[in-house]
Amino acid sequence: MTRICLDNITFSYKYFPSISGGLLKSNAGLKSQTALSGVSLEINHGDRVALLGTNGSGKSTLLKIVAGIYRPEQGVVTTVGRVYSFLGRNVGVMPQLSGYDNLTVRGLLMDLPDEEIEQKVQEIIEFTELGDDIHRPVSTYSMGMRARLTFGMLMFIEADIMLIDEGLGAGDQFFLEKARNFINGLLDNSKILLFANHSNQLLRQFCNKALLVDRGKVLAFGEFEPVLHQYNHLKK
Amino acid sequence: MDFFKDIYQGFQRKRLWKKLAVLELKSRFQGAFIGAFWIVLALMIKVGMLSLIYSMVLEKDIKDYVLFLALGLLTWNFISAVIVTSGTIFRKAANFLQQMDLPHSIFVYQNVYREIVSLLMYQLFVLPLLVIIKGWDFVSWVWLWSFLGYLMIIANAFFVSMWLGWLSVRFRDIQSLLASVVMIIFLVTPILWPPPEQFAGSLYFQLNPFYHLLELIRSPILQGVVPVVSWYVSMGLLVFNVLTCGLFYRRVKHRLVLWL
Questions:
Q1: How far apart are CA A72 and CA A152, in angstroms?
Q2: Residue B9, class by beta-carbon neighbours within 10 Å (0-12 exposed, 13-18 middle, 19+ buried)?
């Protein structure tokens, strides 16, 4: 059964304060910023969780920890099920390549068989209505076209656990509606969704639970509306 | 063991790294009139010009010298390209590594594969050149040792790329160092000039691993001799490179993405 379990997770970023270096010791002046501290959570199948929190509260870090990209300094992450992570709006798009090549590379990253990639790419081209533009370098795309392509990449989903960070929300009104319908179709009870987005409307549409993170700690986790209410109060 | 698993899993993703390498090559020559043929043409121009000048300066027979230079230069091109680009392997892959948990070796394969494609293209120039200058009689079974030599160089290139790649992400100084160090190695290694006979055994050459790597290729083809000492040195190098990667893998695996 699909499940995510975080047990007492602590994680911090190490960084150099502005321009440093030339100090003969490469980690001289290395600072540490705690991004998550003592986070424990259990998310079960069928949970579509909205990640709420102000900028820098630790939402993206949490997603990266669940995706296995970052390893926590303390604590244990357990995920049962295939994870698909889609983090950031333009991440993974190589502008010098055509939309088509970008989609193919995405399929290969997901390790799908060639025929399936080809089939998916054709579906995506049709869905995103990019037509012949798919063969142009992405650097020549308009913002809206980029958004469509990015959403197309999301359509490779073949996973039980979906982690999406700001993946949606661009593109024109008609496309957005189409995209929402697509996501809705994907979400059946066997899947877990962890979705970070600043549009309450989108979150309300997709999610049945919410997780409120603030300064690296979990403030609340439960039914969507009460937690959203708490988040709105936090902002005031 | 995790390290070997990474290498195995990375290899399994060959469709991905081959595609990335080919796309990288294509985008490098995007818009160029003769495209990837520049790889060969650049080598031809280099060998042509340098042969004219250096055969005169060194008072060598141009036919012998051009072969010595071409073989040395193409092998060196491979070695130096791998070393210089290894500094950017993981930084270029940051987009992917920050998205999902992937074996590091995927990007090392990508880097080495791309340079192998260039290496194969170089042969389009050098093999006919050998036959044209020396005739068919010159071709010998001993040349197979040069082929094995390439495999040895490629194996070394793979592991060097990996640890140099890690090192350059962790210490930003390395990237700046690589280009200048490679230039110095080029000048002190017998590539443009054959080692003078009275100094052939000198420690300056014998202690230079790059000299031995080049001899793996040059010696069987030009002298028809298997360079035994150079083989020992290259195997030693390989062991060193594998051990270096293996020892640091566990420490680097989950930190790399934080350094990017």
A1: 31
A2: middle
Whether the pLDDT of residue A20 is over 70: the answer is no
Q: Judge: A69–B97 Cβ closer than 8 Å, yes or no.
A: yes
Q: Chain B residue with minimal CA distance to A32?
A: B258
**Which of A157, A189, A212 is at the close of a domain?**
A157
- What is residue B80's predicted lDDT score, i.e. its pLDDT? 94
Domain housing A124: 93-157
Residue, of B151 and A93, whose pLDDT is higher:
B151
Q: Is the ipTM of this complex over 0.85?
A: no
Q: Is the pLDDT of residue A189 over 60?
A: no
Query: Measured between CB atoms, does A104 come within 8 Å of chain B?
Result: yes
Q: Is beta strand A3-15 parallel, antiparallel or unpaired with respect to A31-44?
A: antiparallel
Question: In this structure, are A131 and A208 located in the same domain?
Answer: no
- Domain coverage including residue B203: 2-259
Whether residues A108 and A219 share a domain: the answer is no
**A87 contact B CB<8A:** yes
Do B98 and A69 meet the contact criterion of CB atoms below 8 Å apart? yes
| Crossing angle of the two packed helices B2-12 and B14-28, in degrees rounded to 10 | 70
B172 touches chain A (CB under 8 A): yes
Give the count of domains, chain B: 1
B257 has a chain A CB within 8 A of its CB: yes
